[in-house]
Amino acid sequence: MNYADLVRVTLPETALEVAALVVLIVDLGFLRKAALKMRVAVAALLGVAGCGAALWMMQTLRPASLSFGEYGESPLLITFGYVQVAQIGILVLTALTLLLLIDSVFTRHVGEYVSVVLMAAAGGLLIAGAQDLLVIFVGLELLSLGLYILTAFAKSSGKSAEAAIKYYLYGGMSAAFLLFGFSYFYGLSGTTDLAGIQLAITQQGPSPLFYAAWVLVVAGLGFKIAAVPFHLWAPDTYEGAPAPAAAFIASVSKVASFALLITLSVNWLMVSVRGDVVTDSTEAFFRQCYGIWPQLATVLFLAAAASMIVGNLAALAQVSTRRLLAYSAIAHSGYILLGVAAYRPYTGQADVIQFMLDSDGPAIQSTNAVLYYVLTYGLTTIGAFGVVGVVERATGSDRLDSFLGLHKRNPLLAAVLLVLFLSLAGIPPLVGFWAKFNLFAAVLGVSAGPVPFALVALAVAFSAVSLYYYLQVLKRAYVMPAVDETPIKAHPVTLAVLVAIAAAVVVLGCFPALLQGWIQSFYPVP
């Protein structure tokens, strides 16, 4: 590895960091005495421009991967296939959360806020493409530290400070679990490279310490995606953080974390194969690979089931819309974990070739279904927090009753809320329906046995339960009479972003092949 290659492969992350510095220089050096609205608009637009520059560099300038040394060694970072899809999603979602900042007044330190968002997004890009334990940990800490700061940015709010403290304490414990797990993997294999760890474990055979390390890693990453029982930070953080920050946490952090989970599942389910033939000498090796994964997947299946049950049942009792969205996020994490944990029994060489190398094979289908779900969920959640933020600024509360008569107070905002919440509930023909349909179909297509089938049935049942608490908000917006019929006004940029998100949810739902085809276009892996 040379430093020229390192610079080239990390150009998008570098663009975000440079944009963060530019935002600070412009805001503190040139706009210090300008009106707050002007500073917010300039900082947000500079941040969006930084995301655009990173996206352009990602598409045109950087190589496919960065290796440790000579050709043929395992990559340190990869930038193709599902990784590129996730990284593009991170940049787009970051830009949308920055645009929602334009109508916010929770802080005067807008330059610092946008800079932290961009640096956290850079951490998300690293996480999505990392193939080494050290890079993964650095990326996770860069993302996590940014999220802790963003949660505490509303300095006049006691809830914001409380949420940040809780988030930080839980985050510190999760980092300790993750680091312990990583240290055990290193001790068992003598390397921090994911593929190297896979190779060592399958050659030596899994030990009890290996499974203990996997449980520790799942605990650390379960915190990032708010999976039960590592979810306790989410309701307070979603409720106390500023609305744009909560939207960023609910979307960008989830995309990056699930991209990492895909990486881990791929590296422990199979080795990195180059070519199109699996020889007889590797037959026992692949059988061992497939023999390990069902035990590892069991941990994910348990977390998925617990998340679906706890998230949906707890959401039924909420009177705060933000907390409702937090428990909804926990439930959605459970759905997505089903796709990550899906596995197929080993049936021989031909099955290995189809599973691992075919761009239409079951492994790719499951990965694509997870990406489809997490990207559309992130988009919809940003819109939902955008609507909640507008209503909260107008009424001073995020309680369900704050939405009373919204269809009279702002018909366009109510229509956006209707589209987004029905999509989160999985109602056709919105994109949320196709996200769940594709994911559940992929799980049943890849996995075999009664456990995956039962979990998919449980997910379908709780999707019906989720419709009830989403309708509680919509009932107040459309059916119940308003206590105050004063019009609710939204900034034109905020309203345009929310309408665009709602339109995208409808269009992608009516034409699901658009997003599916775009994701599939990044395969086969070069």
The pLDDT mean sits at 85
Proportion of residues in β-strands: under 5%
Order of helices and strands: HHHEEHHHHHHHHHHHHHHHHHH
Using only C-alpha atoms, the radius of gyration works out to 22 Å
Which consecutive residue ranges, at least 5 long each, have pLDDT under 50?
A: 67-72, 270-281, 353-359
Question: What is the number of helical segments per DSSP (H or I, 4+ residues)?
Answer: 21
For the termini, the CA-CA separation is: 20 Å
Q: Give the structural class.
A: mainly alpha
Count of all domains: 1
Instruction: Give the spatial strand order of the biggest sheet.
Output: 1-2
- Total E-strand runs: 2
Describe the 3D structure.
The protein is mostly helical. It has one domain. The protein is built from 21 helices and two strands. The chain has a two-stranded antiparallel sheet with strand order 1-2. A hairpin with a 7-residue loop joins strand 1 and strand 2 (75-78). Helix 2 packs antiparallel against helix 5 (110-129), helix 6 runs antiparallel to helix 11 (243-269) and helix 17 (411-425) packs antiparallel against helix 19 (450-478).
